[in-house]
Amino acid sequence: DRTIKIAPSILSADFANFGQEIQAVEAQGADWVHVDVMDGHFVPNLTFGPPAVKAFRPHVKTVMDVHLMITPVDPYIQAYADAGADILTAHVEAGPHTHRTLQAIRATGMKAGVALNPGTPADAVEHLLDMTDLVCVMTVNPGFGGQKFIDMTSKVRKLREMIGDRPVHIEIDGGVDPKTAPLVAAAGADVLVAGSAVFKGGSVETPGVYGNNIRAV
Ligand code: DX5
Ligand code: ZN
Predict the structure, then answer these.
(1) What's the CATH code of the domain at 27?
(2) How far is ligand 1, taken at its centre, from the CA of residue 33, in Å?
(3) Residue with the nearest Cα to atom 4 of ligand 1?
(4) What's the pLDDT tens digit per position in 131-154?
């Protein structure tokens, strides 16, 4: 009995109007706002850094969920805490010391997330589950919005089992739409990031799971 949360990714929003775009999706009922930070190094695209995230903060009344697609992570953790991130997620592929990184994130008071690229198995986070508040399962190779969904439902099921009764969210990121959202929700995900489905002519309700209204698989 999980409530599915929708986290619109502002990567697909109008970059000249972030404040209005955030207010619009929150008015539609967005649970969290997902912020994609890219460094042109860990992923082949560049977005924004701490000063931009700080500027988004006053517009986000819900939860600011910051997804770092950068390496290294540790030198920037405090800057994202100061910018007002509620959840800070680092990739397990971003360096050899994810455990230390998650500890450092929690030490600032933020919640700590760990993200897995499609090619990375669930086992990579097995020994991090007591250090983490969220596991982000990438269902595209990170870097761009609007890509085709890669089926990771077996990974999601495995993670849900590994997590057991720990209070750890499973977030899905990439290619969430009305066809794929019910699949990942049924597999055990409880937070769905949606970029193009929400901002390119749709709304928070477009993936079809808003308010826990999960369609039959
Ligand atoms: C991809 C980002 C995603 C992306 C999702 O690297 O992490 O958050 O914006 O966009 P859609 O929903 O269009 O796949
Ligand atoms: Zn993301």
Answers:
(1) 3.20.20.70
(2) 12
(3) 145
(4) 999 999 999 999 999 999 999 999
Q: What is the position in ligand 1's atom list of the atom closest to the CA of 176?
A: 12
Query: How far apart (Å, rounded) are the C-alpha atoms in residues 20 and 13?
Result: 10
Whether pLDDT at 212 is above 70: no
Residue type, 64: M
Domain containing residue 38: 14-168
Q: Would 70 be classed as within a structural domain?
A: yes
Separation of CA 7 and ligand 1 centre (Å): 11
Is residue 17 pLDDT above 50, yes or no? yes
**Annotation says 173 is catalytic:** yes
98-113: per-residue pLDDT in tens? 999 999 999 999 999 9
Q: Give the count of domains, the chain.
A: 1
The DSSP symbol for 185 reads H
- Residue of 132, 137, 3, 6 lying closest to 62 (CA atoms): 6
Ligand 1 atom at minimal distance to the Cα of residue 177: 12
For the entire predicted model, the pTM comes to 0.96
